[in-house]
Structure formats: structure tokens, C-alpha cells
Amino acid sequence: MLARLAALAKRFFWPVLIVVLAASLALVLWSGRAETMGFRDAACSFEDRMPGCLDSMKIWNGGLAYFDSSLASTGDTLWSLKSLLWTYWGLEFAGAGDAAVTAEAILPLHVLQMKKSGCMGLSWLAMMVAEARHLPLSVIMLPGHVFLRYGADSSSAINLEPNREGYSYTDAEYREKYKAGPWTGLEFKPLSPTQFVGLAAFNMGNLYLDSDLRRALTWYRMAEEFFVEYPGIKANQEIAKSRLPDHL
User: Which pTM does this prediction carry?
Assistant: First the structure.
């Protein structure tokens, strides 16, 4: 009997723990106030840290000090932001394919430590700076990609490619590069912090789709809470569910 109970505990403990941790994360992020959720607190919560964790991070505070100093001396906000990301922090593109879609390339605090990133991690980090310094920066979604847009006026805004040190593609060039889609109707519109968090959770779920179905489903569940409009979440949820053994 005891052996059987131990086996049951082993079978159910880790799935339950993962669900509890995800629920705790969602609670911290959500708190009934999605419209006030920020990129910085979300970054802390995704890495199991308390909101406000950045206040004690030397590399983060040093970066903001560098940005402020650069802006004071040049008066150029955009140049100062690009200099912070690609010179002071020295962030590099992790590489095409799987290297750019690991947890280390998605989660911004990991990106700060490892200096390698894909489009999600770097854009998240840039939006954290924009949030802290009230910059007119937004993150824009494309099929399987995000990029940054600087400027409050869409007619004069500047696109910044996160994987090419801020190189500026036009919207037309992006449409051509990603014409194969799939397009959802959500492209070229600024993502809210809530939507971005949902997209990040979706990407985290994708990391586990071939290795840990329960963990993938937990991330997809959270992604759906924050970005229900994105059809890829439901589609990948169904794929994960279809792969679950009948007895689980």
C-alpha cells in the first residue's frame, strides 16, 4: 500500500507543482489589473522573482545610468537606446533557428546575463527600458517574429530590427520577408504588455511541445489568459492535447 501511494505521489506531484507554479505566476502578473501590468514586473515574475527585483540588479541599474548619461550628452534618445542595448550591454543575436528560441534567449534577465538573444528577449528588454524612461517605443508582431518601433507618430516612426542591432526595415520590406505567413490580422499593431506576456508564454510552451507536454500545456494556458486573440495558442494547445497518452 505504501509503495503504491509513493508511486501515485511521484506520478502526480510534479504535474501539480508545475500547475501551482504557473498559477502563482499568473496571479502575480494578473492581479485583476492587466491594464497596469508592466514589462519589468513580468520579467521578474517569469523568472520566479518578486516584482521590483530589478531594483537590486547592478547590471540593470548600470544600464539605466549609462542611458541617462548618454542622453544628457547627446540629446539623442534613440541613439542612446541603441547604444545601451548593443554597445554598453553588448547584446548579440543568438543565431537563427533553435538558438534564438531557447528560454535563455526569451527571458530578458537571462539575456542580460548571457548577452545572447532572439527577437523576443531583446525586444522585451528594450521595452523594459522604454517603460522605465517613458520612451515612445512599441513592440510589433509579425508571423513568428517581433520587431521594435520608435516614435509616437506612425507616419514618422522608425522600425528597429532586434536581430540586426536596430537596422531599420520598412513595413513593406517586412511584409515581403514574412509574406509566407501565417498572417492573423494582429500584425503591425503595437502589442500591449499583457499581449506580449502572452506571446512570451506561448513561446515558452513551444519549447516544451516535443519534450514535456504537461509543462507545454501549462504555459499555453497562461498564454491564453493574456493573449486570447492569438490563434496560434489554441492550435498548439490542441496539438499538445492530441499527443497526451489516454491514461494521463
Answer: 0.85
pLDDT value for 20: 42
What is the DSSP code string of the chain? Answer: -HHHHHHHHHHHHHHHHHHHHHHHHHHHHHTT-GGG--HHHHHHHHTT--TTGGGG-HHHHHHHHHHHHHHHHH--HHHHHHHIIIIIS--EE--SGGGGGSHHHHSHHHHHHH-EE-HHHHHHHHHHHHHHHT--EEEEEETTEEEEEE-SSTTT-EEEBGGGTTB---HHHHHHHTTTS---S-TTSBPPHHHHHHHHHHHHHHHTTTT-HHHHHHHHHHHHHH-TT-HHHHHHHHHHHHHS-TT-
pLDDT of residue 34: 54
